[in-house]
Amino acid sequence: MGVSDRPEQKETPAAGQGGPPGRSHSSLPRGLGALPGSPLHEGRFGRMFRRLPPFVPGEDQIEALARTMVERPPDASGGDNEAIPAGYTYLGQFVDHDLTFDPQSSLDRQNDPDALVSFRSPRFDLDCVYGRGPADQPYLYDRRGPGAFLVGGRGGELDLPRNPRETAIIGDPRNDENVFVSQLHLTMMLFHNKVLERLPEFPQAAPRAGESPFEAAQRTVRHHYQWIVVHDFLRRVVGDRTFGSVLAREPQAPGGEPVEKADLRFFRWRNAPFVPVEFSAAAYRFGHSMVRGGYKINTSVPPLPTFTPEPVNENPLGHFGGFRRLPARWQVEWPRFFDLGGAPGELQPSRRIDTGIVPPLHELPPEVAPGMSSLVRRNLTRGARLGLPSGQAVARAMGFSPLTDDELALPEPGPAPLWYYVLREAGHLHRGRHLGPVGGHIVAEVLLGLLHADPASYPATEPGWRPFLPSENDGDFTMSDLIRFTGFGLTPV
Length: 493
Description:
Blueprint: E1 45-46, H1 59-68, E2 80-85, H2 87-99, H3 106-110, H4 115-118, H5 127-130, H6 133-136, E3 152-154, E4 157-159, H7 179-197, H8 213-238, H9 240-246, E5 247-251, E6 258-262, E7 275-276, H10 277-280, E8 294-295, E9 304-305, E10 349-351, H11 375-385, H12 391-397, H13 405-408, H14 418-430, H15 437-453, H16 458-461, H17 479-486
Parallel strand pairs: 1-7
Antiparallel strand pairs: 2-10, 3-4, 5-6, 8-9
Helix pairs in contact: 1-11, 2-7, 7-8, 7-17, 8-9, 8-15, 14-15
C-alpha cells in the first residue's frame, strides 16, 4: 500500500450505491455502499435511527436543491466564521480519514463481500499516519532514526515522501487530496518525530513495561491528538452548550481526579461501535460548507482558488489540488490557518456553517471527483441512495422542534435531506458559527462515543489523563500548541 501507483476504479454518478471507492475524499469508504440492505447491528457502518423511514428525493429535486446551495458571492467577508480559523476545516477532513482508515486496495474491496462486518473498529489512533507500523511497513519510516517517519522535500522545503511518479508514500493516500491536508499530515509526522526525539524530557512519556521508545512516543502522540479532537476541534464545531451536555467531568472517587464521561442518548451499539451513516453521509459533512473559495497559503504564493475544474497536471500552479509533489515555495505558513498568537501572517477564518457552498466545490477537478464534479450533488445523491431519514424526522426523534418550511427555505416545502437540514439549522439558529442541536448532537455523540469505546484511548486507559507537552495553557493542548511543538510552518516563506 502506498509505495506504487495503483489503478483505481472511478466513481460514476451511479456508484454512490456501492461501487468501489477511489482514493479521494469524495469516494465511498469500504463497506458503506452495502448498508441500506443490511439487517446487521454491527460492522463498520450502521444507523443511529434504524426505525425512521428513508427520505429519497428524486434527481430533479436534488438538482433543484443543489442550485440553491451556491454561495454568492464567494468569500464575501459577510460569510466568514471568525469563531473557527480556516485550518480546522482541514483538521476535520484529517479526522475523518483517521476514523474511516481503509488500507485495502481497490481489488481487495471489490472481492470482499463481508466488508460491512469484517473490518476494523473505527478509532482515533492515527492509523492513517502510522499505517501498520515500522515492522510491517518499513518504507514509511526512516532507517537512520529508528521509529521516526521518513520525511520528503527538496531545496530545504518539506513535503510528504514520494515515489518517482509523485505518489505520496503515506499510510492513507486520501491525505494527499489537497495541499492543506497533505501539509497537515506532514505536521503530524513531524509531531511524532519531535516527541520521539524529546522523549527523555517528559517523565509521563517514558516507555512503560514492554514498550519501545517508538511505542511510548506513539502513545503520547495519540493521546494528545485525541485531546485536540475533543477539546479543541469538537468544542468549536458543536458549541459549548451541546459539548457540555454530551461530555461531563465527574469525580472518579471522593477527592479523586475528575474523569470525562460521555452521555450518549442517541448513539448506541449492540456488540461493537460503528460509524453511523447519519454521521458519515450527512452531519459530519458540515465541513464542506466551511471551505473557502480560495486561500493565501504563505507570503510568496498569491491567493489561489481551492480547486479549479482543470486537472492539476494541466494547471499545477493554479489551485491547491493534491496528488502531486508540493510546488517550490508552497510550504504552508500555519499562522494563516490556526491562531498562533502574533506569529507572522494574516489568520484566515473558515466560512460559516450554512447551506452556501463555494463554487469550486460545485465543479471539482477529475482527480478529486471523477464522474460527478459537484460535491453538493454527490452528498445529496449519496444520502438518498443510503436511505437517510429526513432532517425533520431526525429532529423529532431527538426531541427537538423541527425547523419550519419557511426556516428551511427549500425550493418546495416538504422533507429536507438530512445534510441540508444540518447546514440550514446551523445557519438559522447560530448564524453559522457552530452546529445546531441535531447536527451537533450527532457529531458530538459519535466522536465521543467512538473515543470512549476505544480500549487504547486516554479515557479508557487513563481516565484522569491531562496533556503534559508544552502548551499555552497548562493541562490543555490545542492544534496551535502541536504546531509550536513541531516548529514547522511558523516562519514566512
